[in-house]
Amino acid sequence: MDYIFDKFEDEIKKGVRRVFDLDIDIPIEIPDEERGDYAIPCFVFSKLLKKSPHEIAEIITNNIELELGSAQSSGPYVNFKIDDRELVKNTIEKCLEYEDSFGSYPSKDEKMILEHTSANPNGPLHVGRARNPIIGDTLARVYEKMGYDVERQYFVNDIGRQMAIFAWGSINIEERDLPEPERNKIDYRMVRYYQKANSQLEEEPKIEDEVRDIIHAMEKGDKQTLNLFKDNADKVLKGVTDSLKRLNITLDSFKNESDFVVDGSVDDIVDQMDKNKRCGKEDGALFFEKDEKRTFLTRADGTNLYPARDLAYHKWKAERAGRLLNILGEDHKLHGHFLKDALESIDITPVPDFVFYSFVSFEGEEMSTRKGKYVTLDDLMDTAHNKAKKEILKRRDDFSSDEIERISEQVGIGAIRFNIIKIQPEKPIDFRWEEALNFRGDTAPFIQYTYARSCGILERSDIDLDPDQVDMSKIDEPGEMKLIKTMAKFPHILKTVRDNNVPHRLAKYALELASEFNQFYRDHPVIQSKNKKTERLLLVKAYSYVLKSLLDTLGLEAPESM
Q1: Which residues contact residue 454 at a Cβ distance below 8 angstroms, ignoring those fewer than 6 apart?
Q2: Half-sphere exposure (CA, 13 Å, Cβ side) for 222?
């Protein structure tokens, strides 16, 4: 798809290469807005061309041929500004052509496996875990917009210590000894066994031996034990996936950790690592070492540990995709580094990229499944729905009860997703309702309301918007131009998010786009315009397509009325 900024960037690069008759990489930067749309620092060419950066900037400015904009030297830089007429024409034409697919790119014919959530299936998702699937799903949507074939995958940790405690509880604890479940969903009922077992383990340390026996049976591939693990995990996962679906998140596939034990993949990777120069043994236990940090792959008795199973999983993924991305909590950073180093040491590619995120607290409270101290994602979504409903009823009394429920769900779920994704992953979040559901703040309701406003403007108009009958040269005022330039940035923002895995930049852009539209609407009459009604209505229509595409990328619904 030919977006104006892509075309201009390509024209600049080709133009500079022609000026010097050299096939070289051209570094392009985004300068301050008043300087232009693109800039080239000329320092990098000095050694090659044996000229000063200032001279090179002058040579480029005086000799480059551009159709889509102009060039101006500024010391050792060349600044480039896109032509306003080209900007208006291309942006509106592409918005009307692609509609709510604006920003998308053709298929790259490249498979990507994006792993997210992968929470231990020993309890329902809580607020502290909600950040993982929201980051993962948002990035998956970005990569799909960029043309990747994305498979959203959940690595099911259906074996290991926590699942062994869960299994011990389901075997040894009678349901009558458990507290009543908070809800009637099977995942909530099952998690009580894990919590009760944890509590008993603290009081009766001898249970540890029984848990250890279960772990060893599992790691040796005992089918009865593995089936119990899988059965417990499946029951919890049903609740997890139901919760995610309400959050507008779906998963394409699940891969069980136990599969790699049963099919021999873990044994194979252990044998491979046993021959690795970076591996050694301590009392018979195999470890991988880098920078004096050891990661153990097996115990002294030869049973495997989670790092070995995760290596087997990543080898499996690498054989099926050209790009891998994992979303992990910050407490898994060392494990992430180990994975990359270990995979590279045995020449397995591609190695995964990682997004590490800090955790979420709710109204200042930290979450813990083991201690039974958490706000579940379902409770959070119910509260969001009810709070959104109250806000909507304050503003509108003309909706039917069904419309109220539908819009409340759209706004409430949007508030959760946006309030989490707008914060840089590495920074902690303290989730607070007064921030998430503020209709005038940096929130999803503000952005969704702006979309509803654009739909309302178009609905109230009585003009057939035929772009062939519209004089786009009339769109020339600063407020109009600023909105169009912001709209045209969307494909570039998607590239930035993809290249750096920074989903919060998408949220920042959404706020910028919504704010620019509100400013435009305040300053420029649309339906009441005396001589620009049709042109401005066309601009509003183009804007509605960009914002709807953006909302979809953020996983937010686009209500046409609020």
Answers
A1: 517, 540, 543, 544, 547
A2: 14
Q: Which two tokens stand for residue 242?
A: 């139901």
Number of compact structural domains in the chain = 3
First to last CA, the chain: 33
CATH number of domain containing 442: 1.10.730.10
This model's pTM is above 0.85: yes
Residue 151's beta-bridge partner residues?
A: 113
Q: What is d(CA 474, CA 148) in angstroms, rounded to the nearest whole number?
A: 38
* pLDDT per residue as tens digits for the range 494-511: 999 999 999 999 999 999
| Pair 337, 160: CB distance under 8 Å | no
Residue 448 lies in a domain: yes
172 and 77 in a common domain = no
Instruction: Give the residue ranges of DSSP H helices in 440-553.
Output: 444-460, 478-488, 490-500, 504-523, 533-553
SS (H, E, C) 447-472: HHHHHHHHHHHHHHCCCCCCHHHCCH
257's tokens: 């950790």
**Range of the structural domain that residue 53 is part of:** 4-82
Written as one letter, the residue type at 18 is R
Please state, in angstroms and rounded to a whole number, the distance separating the CA atoms of residues 231 and 187: 12
The pLDDT, as a whole number, for residue 199 is 87
| Structure token digits, residue 185 | 């969903």
Domain annotation covers residue 277: no
pLDDT band at 177 (very low <50, low <70, confident <90, very high): confident
Please state, in angstroms and as integers, the Cα–Cα distance from residue 512 to each residue in 97, 421, 546, 555, following that order: 23, 15, 13, 18
In angstroms, rounded to a whole number, what is the distance separating the alpha carbons of residues 463 and 538? 10
- Measured between alpha carbons, how far is 71 from 211 in angstroms, rounded to an integer? 71
What is the rounded CA–CA span in Å between residue 523 and residue 460?
19
Q: Tell whether 457 and 340 lie within a shared domain.
A: no
Strand order from edge to edge, sheet including 293-296: 279-282, 285-290, 293-296
Which pLDDT does position 123 carry in this prediction?
75
Question: Rounded CA gap, 450 and 456, in Å?
Answer: 10
Q: Note every long-range contact of 363-370, with CB atoms under 8 Å and residues 24 or more positions apart, other chains counting.
A: 363/430, 363/431, 363/432, 363/433, 364/430, 366/128, 367/126, 367/127, 367/128, 367/129, 368/128, 369/120, 369/122, 369/123, 369/126, 369/191, 369/194, 369/195, 370/194, 370/195, 370/198
